[in-house]
Amino acid sequence: MIQLHQVIFQYPTEGSFRLRVPDLQVADGECVAIVGPSGSGKTTLLGLLSGILGSESGSIRIGETELTGLDDNARRKFRVRHIGQVFQTFELLHYLNVAENVSLPNQVEKTFTDQQHLQEHVVRLLESVGLGEKAKAYPGELSQGEQQRVAVCRAMFNQPPLLLADEPTGNLDQANKQNVVDLLIEQARRNDSTLLMVTHDHTLLSSFSRVLDMPTVILQGQDTGGEP
Amino acid sequence: MKGALFLGWRYLAFHRFKATILTASITLMLFLPAATRLLVSDSAAALTARADQTPMIAGSKGSPLELALNSLYFHADQPPPMPFNLYRELRDSGLARAIPLHTRFHARNTPIVGTSLDYFSFRELQLASGRMIGMLGEAVLGANAAASQGLAVGDSIISSPETVFDIAGVYPLKMPIVGILEPRGTADDEAIFVDFKTTWVIQGLGHGHQDLEKPEARSAVLNRSDGMVTANASVMEFAEITAENIGNFHFHGANDEFPLNSVILLPPDEKSSTLLRGRYQKNDLGLQLIVPSEVLNALLDTVFTVQNYVVLGLIILGLATIAVIMLVFILSQQLRKGEFHTLSRIGASKSFIGTLIASEILFVTFFSVLLAFALTLAVRQYALQILQLFLSL
Fold first, then answer.
1. Domains (range + CATH), chain A
2. What ipTM was predicted for this assembly?
């Protein structure tokens, strides 16, 4: 369960955007789309959930962990182990091959010490997205769709209970957009992860179990979506 | 920590070309000043060591440096020849042991050093195999000269003609190898030693041919009058001196004027040395007396002065290189901001990213230092050969 209660966040610059989330709950295993106009705080919300940003007040609870009670370093460690993230521009490291990109979280914070197990795990992840043969390829040698699938594998590396995706389909054509959404939802379900995905594309919303409209979340403290 | 080092290593491995250029720049920046200093100091020591063992050299007036380098290393330009009678005068002065040197000729690019047996005892040269020169025309080889040409006792070596088309010039002489010297790590290892009179035969001042008094040589005789015999071109000249034909070898003209390059002088004491200088340093004989260590020290003073300017220039160049390398790193970090942001969002700490950046600098610096160290060691190993190559010693 993800619970946000009376969360207030403001960027340090004076007069900048201020986010206030009165109350928000997402159940385990839910696949939620977050929509809203630019500047409505979608990315900021993901930043708070991932622990990249720390709230001024209120409570952010992910599972049993109260994020607002953790310092930067503890939130960072929590993020590596418990939160998978997929970004709009994939953000693969060009000098690492596919397998090394997928296991990048393990370089940041060791979860696998046995190389054999690590490699088996990476191969399993890549095979689950149809990239088993591309383990040694470099990002520059992959299509955009393949790169996004690698990014999904990297996000799933630590089998996180929470998967955050910030407009992961923004740079893709329509066919690939749906493929990536399907893949995210499939991976989340396979792993019993909760998925929160920011998107501007309303054609993709039907794939999600719930839609959060950001202005409504901020103003009324509750979602307006429902089963699509 | 390990993860950051791994990423740093992978970044450099992926950008091999850039990493190689950076490594090469830093390596050269470290290596060049170190190598210059090492080369000069080691080589100076090696140069002066041989010069210090040679108290005095006499030769015709000309460049003292040329005289010193030729007499010590056999490879430098030839000093003007000095007549044999001056050697005799020095020898008979009773003020020094005199060792003649005649280094004009070569065999397969190896210098032929015409000298006397005194040279071997003076330089403490020992035989590794065979025996010393016992007869005109025989050769003893330095260790490297023999090894590089695959020659051994019992083989022969032929002197190189100076000009192919000069029919009156130097003819090749086949010289049997009777001994190979122990290696000494000096210029003696690279030389072919013969009796100095053998070099006169090579020069054509002496020669051997069939006996014109014998009946079988009758057809070669053009004229006999007043004890003079004139022969035609059919007379058989010997290209090798053997025990059988050595009696037929003779020199034409007065050997007082026969050439040498120099004479090594070994005065028994300071007094003799001073007397020698007094008698021969200023003279009308066209002779100069030099102390090789003084000549080489004068050369080295110039070398050290030049070295200081070179090192200063290299240090300035090194500082400029450091500035450029820093600029490259800073620009590289700017370009990689996105990558560091991604790592941070995944969960990398600031120290992780700092270690990643530092590891790349450390890897490049480490390999540069290692390479510079290895190159400097190589220079130390081959310092003398390198200097000989540059100075044609």
1. 2-220 (3.40.50.300)
2. 0.86
